[in-house]
Amino acid sequence: MKKRLLLSGGLIVLLALLAGGWLFSQTKPATKATPSKVTTAKATVKQVKKPAYQPLTTKALSHDRDLTYSSIIYYSIKHTKIQRWQEVADFKLGWQLEVYPNGTATKCLVWPDQNIKDDAKQLAPNWFKLSGQTVKYHSFIVHSFRKDMTVTVTLSQIVKQLNADHAATKVRQMPGHLTVVHHKTAS
Question: Out of the domains of life, which is the source (predicted)?
Fold first, then answer.
């Protein structure tokens, strides 16, 4: 009798556990509904697309002179092997360009700091000459009587390299740190 009572009690406990488990499983879908709503919200966020990376083009440079200057400066800092071009590598200070047109070519002196004053312009600056699609970088060698160091590239080569660097976004931000001073004649 004791065995039967024990067996009956165990059976009742087992049935109670099964019934509790069943009830628990019936209430669980209601709690699953909340995470699916969160998932839906996340899916909505994923559908908002970031603007795609827009590479530079020579056509864009031909329509925006400041973008052209920025591309030329960026290339000079990152890809010419002329050490003095590192003097203008501070992207926060920016640059001041003195532009001297001369027929079909343009000579541009590149000073570090977009707000540089004339009394701070003691040493000959780096400069480049833009003639059609050709850019010739020049750098005066300090304490030397030798000719300027030079590198010649085309705007197409510059655009190709900047796109390979994925630098278009950075270059498009540079005109905000660029001051251009136009002169009437070449020097």
Answer: Bacteria
3-class DSSP assignment, residue 118: helix
Which residues have a Cβ under 8 Å from the Cβ of 138 and sit 6 or more positions away? 126, 127, 128, 129, 148, 149, 150
pLDDT over 90 (residue 135):
yes
- In the chain, what are the helix, strand and coil shares in percent, each to the nearest 5? 50, 20, 30
Asked if 100 and 107 count as a contact pair (C-beta separation under 8 A), the reply is: yes
Q: Looking at domain 58-182, does it have CATH number 3.30.1460?
A: yes
Q: How many helices (H) and strands (E) does the chain have?
A: 5, 6
- 95-119 tens-digit pLDDT: 999 999 988 899 999 999 999 999 9
Alpha helices in the chain (DSSP H): 2-47, 58-63, 65-79, 155-164, 168-173
Q: What angle (nearest 5°) sits at the alpha carbon of residue 123, between those of residues 117 and 126?
A: 90
Burial 106-139 (b: 16+ CB within 10 A, else e): bbbbbbbbeebeeeeeeeebbbbbbeeeebbbbb
- Residue 54: its pLDDT value, please? 92
Q: Is 47 helix (H, G, I), strand (E, B) or coil?
A: helix
Confidence of residue 36 (pLDDT cuts 50, 70, 90): low
